[in-house]
User: Fold this.
Amino acid sequence: MAQLWNKGFDINREILEFTVGNDYELDQLMVKHDVYGSMAQAAMLKKMGILTPAEFKTVHTELKRLIELWQQGKFVVKLEDEDGHTAIENHLVKQLGDLGKKIHTARSRNDQVVTMSRLYVKEKLLNIYGHSLTLAQHFLALAKRYRHVPMPGYTHMQRAMPTSGGVWFDQYAEAILDDLQLLKTAFQYNDMSPLGSAAGFGVNLPIDRAYTAKLLGFKKVQNNTMYVAYTRGKVEAATLFALNQLMQTMAKFSNDVLLFSMSEFGFVELPKEYCTGSSLMPQKRNGDVFELTRGKANIMLGYFLSTVELQNVLLSGYNRDTQLTKDLMVKALHLYSNTVKVMSTVTEGITLNKTKCIAACSADIFATDKALDLVKAGMPFRDAYRHVAAHLDELETIDPIKNIKSKAIDFRPAQTSWKANSKWLSGEQRRWQQTVKHLLALP
Amino acid sequence: MAQLWNKGFDINREILEFTVGNDYELDQLMVKHDVYGSMAQAAMLKKMGILTPAEFKTVHTELKRLIELWQQGKFVVKLEDEDGHTAIENHLVKQLGDLGKKIHTARSRNDQVVTMSRLYVKEKLLNIYGHSLTLAQHFLALAKRYRHVPMPGYTHMQRAMPTSGGVWFDQYAEAILDDLQLLKTAFQYNDMSPLGSAAGFGVNLPIDRAYTAKLLGFKKVQNNTMYVAYTRGKVEAATLFALNQLMQTMAKFSNDVLLFSMSEFGFVELPKEYCTGSSLMPQKRNGDVFELTRGKANIMLGYFLSTVELQNVLLSGYNRDTQLTKDLMVKALHLYSNTVKVMSTVTEGITLNKTKCIAACSADIFATDKALDLVKAGMPFRDAYRHVAAHLDELETIDPIKNIKSKAIDFRPAQTSWKANSKWLSGEQRRWQQTVKHLLALP
Amino acid sequence: MAQLWNKGFDINREILEFTVGNDYELDQLMVKHDVYGSMAQAAMLKKMGILTPAEFKTVHTELKRLIELWQQGKFVVKLEDEDGHTAIENHLVKQLGDLGKKIHTARSRNDQVVTMSRLYVKEKLLNIYGHSLTLAQHFLALAKRYRHVPMPGYTHMQRAMPTSGGVWFDQYAEAILDDLQLLKTAFQYNDMSPLGSAAGFGVNLPIDRAYTAKLLGFKKVQNNTMYVAYTRGKVEAATLFALNQLMQTMAKFSNDVLLFSMSEFGFVELPKEYCTGSSLMPQKRNGDVFELTRGKANIMLGYFLSTVELQNVLLSGYNRDTQLTKDLMVKALHLYSNTVKVMSTVTEGITLNKTKCIAACSADIFATDKALDLVKAGMPFRDAYRHVAAHLDELETIDPIKNIKSKAIDFRPAQTSWKANSKWLSGEQRRWQQTVKHLLALP
Amino acid sequence: MAQLWNKGFDINREILEFTVGNDYELDQLMVKHDVYGSMAQAAMLKKMGILTPAEFKTVHTELKRLIELWQQGKFVVKLEDEDGHTAIENHLVKQLGDLGKKIHTARSRNDQVVTMSRLYVKEKLLNIYGHSLTLAQHFLALAKRYRHVPMPGYTHMQRAMPTSGGVWFDQYAEAILDDLQLLKTAFQYNDMSPLGSAAGFGVNLPIDRAYTAKLLGFKKVQNNTMYVAYTRGKVEAATLFALNQLMQTMAKFSNDVLLFSMSEFGFVELPKEYCTGSSLMPQKRNGDVFELTRGKANIMLGYFLSTVELQNVLLSGYNRDTQLTKDLMVKALHLYSNTVKVMSTVTEGITLNKTKCIAACSADIFATDKALDLVKAGMPFRDAYRHVAAHLDELETIDPIKNIKSKAIDFRPAQTSWKANSKWLSGEQRRWQQTVKHLLALP
Assistant:
């Protein structure tokens, strides 16, 4: 089918393929979201009098049908279409004739693609937010289960002081909950309506941007028209930074697990159905899933850095470079989504070996507690420190369980934060569902 | 002076220098903030009964005196001290004897350094927030001044449609205000009290972490003790990401200015006292300040990436690697602070050349407006588009000022957001000042 | 089919998919190269007496048949196979029974995958080297064509001194030829045989690593067995750095073209069949191919950075994280290959507009030449500089063609370097073809 | 003193400080190298007849005196000078009057700064090359010492097969020697003379670029004048990539050491004078030097990435952004130099604990050797693998020393490469010394 901008001569085929890239495949994922945008646009054109109520009805019905076709795999965007927007407009023109040619009034592909992408991203982010909360919940459950299982805490990669398995797991719950604040900020960036900014310079028609924003469930209009193109990359960078931080959290956990499940430690045990083997070495049981999670954090970092650079110093107004952020965003969401789900699975099966954890609590890690006991007895801390340092050989092993129970360990703050996040998520999910329902039922 | 951990033998000098690095110089910047931390710690030790009211009074008085010495340049941290914490403890021991040895009770340098750094960062961020708002204000003022000065809007680096100087400037105000949301999130990360987490595993003493947090003006306690070490790097990464985005915004503006002040455009004019010359070419007047701002965004990116990598997969618990984030943070805050101030200066002197802006509004950029005029007259958009494309030669120049006035240009959203940000900042600044006042006046 | 390491229980399906990822698809690309590795391994097993000459013959014949099946699309690696190595071994066992089970003697998938990947990369790099030389050749041809077409040279994005279109194009030839030195270094890293390092610790069999290296056309054996796993990531990082630098070169050229083809300059003209249009603006002709090349350099940067990070601080010995470098390498080679070919196409059609180039040579850019004329007449340079600076208004336009002809412009160094590179490439290509021919004809 | 380009009005002070940055401090490090450049330039001006032999003699004598002043700390570049080039020219004018004003004939600060920087970098790289070879030598010595000390080899962070301490150390020798190939390529990039390219567009004077290149010891002239500005950033990126890879090698070694010196392993022992302590925990002995080396690799990565980005898509011709590469280069050279020296120190004191290494060679790591024994006895490998996997409990511990002696371990390839590198270095160092000697003695 012809490109929207086709003026009668053909572009060089190699260049077409190079410029289109995998855009048509990406847009296949977002047909639904693009149609939502067109529904809101059509509703506004009706409000403006450019579409009659009957025309709107016809267009809206056809758009609903298009979603169904797409859900049945019968609407496929092809390379020749260049992108999904073109495929949809061409479909409408084919079905509805002149009426189909009106749908692009007062918008450009520039605002259309951003509208579609942000709707797509918003839906995915809510999804991902939920998976992340599930993982945090697993960490909290593990924390509670191993609250009083002592293990050595390490600093400088050396045994330092006693801590508990619960503290170790709980820190990952807290980390995810903190990371989610970045995701929330990113969600808010995505929650601005670009529709009506057209090619970045508005249009000389009395459009109602607040109306389309409301129909599409955007919290606000992204006001400055030129700024919309600018935020392609900027919004994505903030979103991928949040995903990057979450990946790093899972990577750090994976690295801990890999270390603590070495035979030299034996603290962590993995069910054998989580492990792979070696083609040469018959005895191996490897925690590949954790190595790959650790590794995939570096893949995410690459996506993120590419995105940061794509937002880089380009002349104001739209530049095609930024189109590449769409692919990075889709890949990043997919990567994160897969990883957080796998992590949720494995955190259900992971166990601590209490015996090995306790056995590792050697006498030296109680040195500080001993010094503080001397402090309680009245010795200045620095003197107590020097006294213990000079008598390290005389340190007695203390019952590590008793010791760990004597310390303040509190998982309620994470629990409270978890609930607040969960509530926020439910609210946003409800808002999204109502938006979609309302769009599909537009009169 | 001896290191806090000195146990009677000397570390290899080359290794000492390598490990200490410039830490002692960085800590020199933060003596005040470290003393604040010690004041709160001492107050809590008094509450716990480890210091008597009289001892607390003595320590508090000496700590206040230490701030004065430091402000007068008479308290200098040296390489031999290893860091500021040691220098301060040694000073107290020298002045107060055994009493000075008590101050480190129930804390470690691990929580102490994070407490100090976060207080330092919080104060700097508030400062920087203010400078950023000033710059946004300048952009808004420029936007208003040039609201109806037309200039070509570009897409794909080609003249596309008419826009106005006001829209161009306003987008940078909106960008900064959006970037500041990231800085606010970063501020909140820094607003958690690490004090009392000790070496990452708590202490077997009944400390009151909420009390010290409150004294130091932290919004909440960072609960999980192990998580504190983990967030060295994590918190910094979020902070530097915000600074990176702000730098990118200034870099993008600089790049626009450099292009628009080329003789081929002539839209932007720079006062000659902002420009430098060439050693070889007598006629040159260069906008180095904009080139360097563009370049320095890449320096910030390096700081940011180093920080992201330093938070990377390290074993749970403190690792010395993360100490390097302190230097990166200080450098990044300094770089951003300098740049935002220079940008505030130059945005006071920059002007648009109305004549050249108007002259650049050639007939072709009105093609879309023409097509939409046909739409108003009833033609379906895609037909109107094709009609205009086929008759490009017949396009008439439209009065660009009239044209630009016919479009919706609104700077109130940025203005409203600016005020909300400004209010938030005032509140936080007041909170900080009250915290400091209260700390210095502890009974 | 079963995994090579299957010991009788099944791995969790979700985890299998997560860990296998797209490995089986990547390996589909490299079946031929993996078979080459197996041919050499089999030849060595024959030499060692583990395979009889007849057995070797049988295996070799089957391996040749496998390449044919693969070339006809009849040999497909599936997710269930986990990877290509498994698919091939399973195929051999199915066809040859016990004989097929012998092929993995004295090697591991660890050295097998690196052998396969390096052969694949080597072949691709030679290919890419050729395309890069073609592009350099185009730049040289353009340089010669526009040797004496004057245009302003810019510094600080301001017109500075006269230069020529030839100089502008020639710098890109020189850049590519310099970048290729990095690619050559990368090629040499890939030209070390890992085969026989097994899982990283050798084998207790008298294998002949020099023999397999020679059969496979590797310049040398990678000696240290543990170091082989280490270089997964290290070798890839060096390769991707070279590709990154080449992409940057094309991106810089693209950025120049985008600027110089703006209507404000008009120096560069693009054939319309290289340009795309706008869905909203009827008049637009956009150089998307250059914007995307500029943008794709940031994609490459992401691949590169991910790779650098994947080589990062992992425990000595193989870690599964590094498997992810295979996908990055394949993507990077593909991206570069596509881009360099498109750039070769467009550099065939690009032209300079001589009239506009000359018109842009305004009087001010001859200031330095004027100053140096005063030097020739005896004035000290700094005085001449100040004299001209004080009399800028009196500068006369000089004939820019005459001016540019008076300067030394020499394209022979690039030409000479091009020939040397071309000769190196031919030699390596011949060596590769002979290696393959010899492998397929092993007795 | 006045800037070279000062034309009678003053630049805004804040902007001056922002644009000059720490350039004057960096140039203080390179005064000697800038003077070398001026000596060659003066010699050429004499050859051209612009300086008389007597004038040359006067200038050359003053330049030699300037080096002495600088070596005695009596020549200091100040902020007001803007940079070292200005400070030197002003000094010459002050001492020699009109003669001093002639020195800048036929060059610009653009080629002058690159000339100076490359000479500085070349000298430093030779130095660094030497230190790296020393470190490689230490690794080779350790490899020989621990050739037959067995230890478990790890894959997937799990014990896999037996290897030896010698193999572990030798891989780092091989890694450094490979990394040095990148440093050699980088050295060659720096070994091109930019002098005479002036501001990027040559000069209308019959200069002899080959002559100054030869005097300064550059292997060749960097031919294309515009390309010189382009390579600011490009050459630096290649150099910092080499340093980054070397840092990564030391970081990986450090990470191994940190792990292997954990009490759970105990393979590696560090002299106590290499270790630091904790302020809270009396018993700690920490390998901070290794943690910081690991961390500093991330600092280097930041320098590198900033540099890569600074070479990014800028308009052809000089852009001030690239000036920032000078600071990054100096910092990177300094960082690497410090780290490689510290690593050389610690690799002299590090020891392996043979008893613990042997004790860790548990029965399971001999499984593969057992399977291959079955292969020797005639069983197909995959059957042997499955047999051993099914009978893991029956594995007997093999004498690990005997086992490791049965495998091919060869340190001669690294030794041979070390010698070749050492020879190359000696040659280049001799060439540099002769160049300097000749420059200082110019008639």
Q: What stands out?
A: The mean pLDDT of chain B is 93. Chain B touches chain D through 68 residues (CB under 8 Å).
